[in-house]
Every structure is written in C-alpha cells, then in structure tokens.
Design brief:
- The chain is α/β, with parallel strands linked by helices.
- The chain is built from 15 helices and 14 strands.
- Strands 1, 2, 4, 7, 8, 10, 11, 12 and 13 form a nine-stranded mixed sheet that branches. A three-stranded mixed sheet has the order 5-6-9.
- A hairpin with a 2-residue loop joins strand 10 and strand 11.
- Helix 1 crosses helix 12 and helix 12 runs parallel beside helix 15.
Amino acid sequence: MLQVEPAARKRRSQQRVALALAGGGPLGAFYQLGCLHALADCTDGLDLTHLDGYVGVSSGAVIAAGLANGIDTGQMVQLFFVEDGTERYPLTPGMLMRPALSEYCDRAIRLPSLLKRIASNLTKDPFGQNWAALLSPLAEAIPTGVFDNRPFEHYLRELLGTGGRTNDFRKLHAMLRIIATDLNTGEEVRFGEQGYDRVPISEAIRASTALPGLYTPVRIGDRTLVDGALLRTAHASLVLENRADLVITVNPLVTFSNSRRHNGHSHDLAEGGFITVMNQTFRALIQSRMQIGMAAYRERYPYSDRLLFQPDRDDEIMFFTNIFRYSERYRLASHAYQMTRHDLLEHADPLERVLKRHGVTLRLDRLRDPQRWLAPRGGISLGTGTTADLSHALDRLSHWLDAQQAS
C-alpha cells in the first residue's frame, strides 16, 4: 500500500531526499529491506546510500544505519540471507534470540528476599490479607525481557567498524538519527544529535531495538532505554525539520483487516489466542499514530513531498507469519519486494510526477518484468539441494498467488 502525498506548496527544490524507517521487530526489518530493494531496483536517480538524512526506530534503525554507511540493499540481502559460508558477516538466529540468562539469574536471586517479604506481611495479619496484594512482590522476580540483544550489538559493531564503514555518528556523510525511549522519564532520546553523537551507532541500535518484554532494557550513561517506537512511529519530523524536499517513509506494521470471508464467514482473530490479540492491538496503536503524524505533516511541512510505504491491510503473510521462525525471513523480504513493485506500478502516474521534481524516474520495464525477483536464482542460499529448490519454488508460487489476487 503506497500513499503519495505531493507538497501543497512549491519551492525551489534543493533535491534533498531523506528516509524515515519505523520499527516492527525482525519482521519489520525484512519487510523494509524487500520494500527498499524494490524501490532502489526499479528507479533511476535514487541512491539510497547517498541521501541527505536518515532516521530509524527499532528495526528501522538497523536498515537506516546500514544505508547511511554505504551498505546498499543488495548487499544487505547478502548479509541477511546468504548461508553458504562465503559471507564474512552472516546474520544468524542466535544473534537475535540469545536468552537473557544474566537477567534470569538476577531475578532468581531476588526471589528469597521477596518470599521473605511476603511471609512477613502474612504473619502480621494472616486472615485479613488481600491475596493479590500479598503476592504482588513476586512480580519483581519476572525478567524484564526474554532475550538479550548484546550479541547483535557485537555483530553490528564489527560490521560497521570495518570495510571503510564507521560506528561513529560524527563520521557519517549524512545525518543519521536513531531513536530510543528513556524508560524512567518517557522522554525521547535522539542518538546522533549533539550530546548523544558520541554513543556508538551499534549501542544506539541496541537501545532502540529493546522492545519491552522481548529484550531487556539497555543502560547507557545514566539512562535506562527501551524501544523508540513507544512514543512515535517513524519520527519523520526529524528529517522534515531538516528541510527535506522528499521524505520516503516505510512502516511495516498496519492493523490487519480480517474482513475477507472464507466459506461464507470470516475467522475471528480472538481464536488465535493471546499473541494474535496483542499483535493486532500493537499494530492498531502504531497505525493510528502514523495516520495522525501524516495528517499533521501536511500542514506543518507543506513544501515537502512524502511517500509512505506500508503493507496492505489484508496481507495475511505480513500478519500471520511467526517472526520467531528465522527461516521465513527470505519469504517475507521477497513478498515485500513484489508487493512494492506492484504498488509502484499501480501508482506510476502520480508517483512519476512527484519523483521527477527530485531527479528520479521509474524503471517501468523492470516493474513490468514478471521474472524479476529479490535476488537472482542461485544468489541466495537457504540450504542445499532440494531445500534450496523448494524455497525458490515456493517464492515463485507465492508471487503468482499474489498476482492472481491483485488482478
């Protein structure tokens, strides 16, 4: 789903192009990669590694930092998906899903003192206790997160610190802002701005991706930090305030519309259990804030063109895929690549008028090419032999089904 919003007023364009990437966990990162690779692959005059500004939140911070460091989307495809041993910096599931053992131990150590507190309160008034209040101290024994993202920070530190790249905000060619939230004050922390530009980019990403409940909070200086999406969705205003003429925003999470009927009735999301309900709830919060922000931008930044890429609201692949199944990453990215190509072609007329003002043109030949994929056959290794052939066959089947649905 592509939303094209031309500037309400015209000014002499300096052709300043910027990128704002929202969060969405591993699923969000793979969607953004597929979306941006389609945009880079099917346009001329748009180099995503040489924009004027980048802002990233949570998983969007990973993609934004890579692009700001000159790692293009094609190289990211190799980094994220190649498993044949040829890639120097392969990304493995263990880096994203390392159990937070130190957090578990820390909370377990507290348990005896918590039980002692409960026993003390019980002896004071054994028959007049509110049992919910009595047992409430046990909540302090619950870990603050399931996983520890320090291994991923180590991976990013090595990746950004070699090959002519940098882990230092101050050495980048363009503005990069990575957003986190101060857990104790609820304040927005903008890494990359003066006062926060000495923090390594990898550490800023670790803080920005610390989704409460999933990853443990991150301590930097005197602040305890968590996911930057808690306050706003994409923080596109940071690049708009920097007088960007064209802002490209990617938001991977939208509310799922369950209106499609199967055998005469629609499936009730409540039947999917707690995770499905919370998934829809979180998406609704994200999307409502995005809609409010985009509406405000029309009035506050009338001289800027804006493009918003999001999944379709009835996209079952984006909603029902288990983000913890790392093997699904290529399918998600490939799906996003094809859906973005479809959106670009469908909105070609208004899009070309906007892009022309910034020296960018659409490659209609590539958009119409049915044989164009996220990566050439053989370019991605998802296994060996039959497994690899099956992965490619499923990818093509998924694309064909998507095309049939769209027609």
